[in-house]
Write a structure and sequence with these properties.
The protein is an alpha/beta fold. The protein has one domain: Zn peptidases (Aminopeptidase). It is 33% helix and 17% strand. The strands form two sheets. The chain has a six-stranded mixed β-sheet with strand order 1-2-4-3-5-8, with helices on both faces. Strands 6-7 form a two-stranded parallel sheet. The longest helix is centred in the middle third of the chain and has 20 residues. The termini are far apart.
């Protein structure tokens, strides 16, 4: 399963060492900022929703499709309107079924000259197998990935737009990971961790700038569905507890304590794992955690389309994020 709940991973995390770069595994310290009074740019939910629709207009966005090629160009060109630099990092990889594919990580930066930086990331590819669909006839079909992929990208794009007009005191790197969602299908009859998150594995091993580091990172995955519910995921808590607690404190202070639920949840295999383990940047995963189903109702089904998106959820996520960023 994508983002497999790794029971055994807890044992590994308990004995992990301090990450490279001198940063502490718990990330930033929780501050006493009055988040209700922190001034932030105005996130436009309608604009973010349009960015989701734009991505879906290209069709399926898994490697090797025309939609994948068009969407990569769209993200790079759009981000270049607001960011100082845009880098397209090309890489080759082999999927679990032997497919050899070409991927593109896209890195857009505000104030690239600043030494102190933060990392905001999402994956932009859509899955080519709807292997969690209730109808087994759909298991080999691709899906549009409105929430699982496009929502996180849209949040980053709108945040880049508004933050460029009101820059924070740090440099910001928006990283769009490719080939995240092409991991082994459930119907394959086996499971392999590293078949997921190919783009973040490559980027963490080959960052766009030599000796790249950041104060912390936030990963946005499935952040656009109705009834939003985010919990304190285990890998995030092990590597970046301070940042995660700060986000949840901020959310409660501005009235979103019912969305950022103060509940520990199981480890999830996602892009943040490799950023934490390889680069040593304390990074958390903001990922939908609906009770009684896998992430959300339409996860890895053909119904993950534009109808699955609630634009107000994206605004909540961005507002909490920017309150923390500007509050710091």
């Amino acid at each position: 399963m994508k983002k497999y709940f790794i029971a055994a991973l807890s044992l590994v995390l308990l004995v992990c060492c301090t990450p490279k770069g001198g940063q502490q595994p718990n990330g930033t310290k929780v501050s006493s900022v009055d988040y209700s009074n922190v001034q932030i740019p105005q996130f436009d939910a309608d604009s973010a929703f349009k960015y989701v629709a734009d991505q879906l207009s290209f069709g399926y966005r898994h490697p090797g499709t025309k939609g994948h090629e068009k969407c990569a160009a769209y993200i790079a060109s759009t981000m270049s309107r607001w960011c100082d630099t845009v880098i397209v990092q090309k890489f080759s990889t082999t999927l679990w079924d032997g497919q050899k594919v070409e991927g593109k990580n896209i890195i857009a930066s505000l104030a690239p000259q600043k030494e102190k930086r933060i990392l905001l990331a999402a994956h932009w590819d859509s899955r080519q197998w709807a292997d969690h669909d209730i109808d087994t006839a759909n298991w080999h079909k691709p899906l549009l990935g409105a929430n699982d992929g496009a929502s996180g990208v849209a949040v980053l794009m709108e945040m880049a737009r508004v933050m460029s007009a009101m820059p924070p005191d740090v440099g910001v790197d928006f990283v769009f990971f490719d080939v995240e969602d092409q991991g082994i299908a459930e119907w394959a009859g086996r499971y392999e961790d590293n078949t997921w998150c190919k783009g973040s594995q490559h980027w963490a091993q080959n960052p766009h700038r030599m000796f790249y580091t950041a104060e912390y990172g936030i990963l946005y995955d499935m952040v656009g569905t109705e009834h939003p519910r985010f919990t304190k995921e285990e890998i995030s808590m092990n590597f970046a507890k301070g940042l995660m607690n700060k986000m949840w404190t901020c959310a409660a202070a501005i009235g979103y304590g019912n969305v950022f639920v103060d509940e520990l949840s199981n480890a999830i295999l996602d892009d943040h794992l490799y950023v934490n383990q390889i680069l040593g940047i304390p990074m958390i995963d903001l990922v939908q955690n609906s009770p009684q189903c896998s992430f959300y109702t339409h996860w890895h089904t053909v119904n993950d389309d534009l109808q699955a998106i609630d634009k107000s959820t994206m605004k909540i996520v961005a507002t909490v994020s920017m309150k923390v960023i500007y509050g710091d």
